[in-house]
Amino acid sequence: MPLLVSIYLGLYLLLTLANGIYCLAGGIKVKTPMMVYEIVSGFLVVLMAASLWVASLNSWVGIGASLALLLVVGIDMRLTIWGDADDLGVPTEEVGNIELDVIKGISLAFAAPAYVMALMLAVDKLVPNASKLFAFWH
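Predicted structure:
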């Protein structure tokens, strides 16, 4: 795995954990199920993205994890594109719509590379020989 990918995925995981711990500790009033989802989905995305590069992890990831990733991507798209503060579990009196759009945009820009790497592996697991489509990546 390239050094920059390792640094990026480590930072992604660290920010996911820090955000989850901060929110669960009461730093921001967010619905607990939403934060648990964020932490679990963050771990899944990092695992799948790292598995694209690490052969021992790649062999562990199967169709179930790939399908779970597709579910996570669908939920995240729904929340990011069409969701409002209430859907995200954030009280609207704490975060306005403009701030929420900025937060969602930054989050999307930061998470996009991890999602792309994870989806590349998921497609490869779900569609036989799909890795030939991504030959430029390796």
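Summary: The first helix runs from residue 3 to 24.
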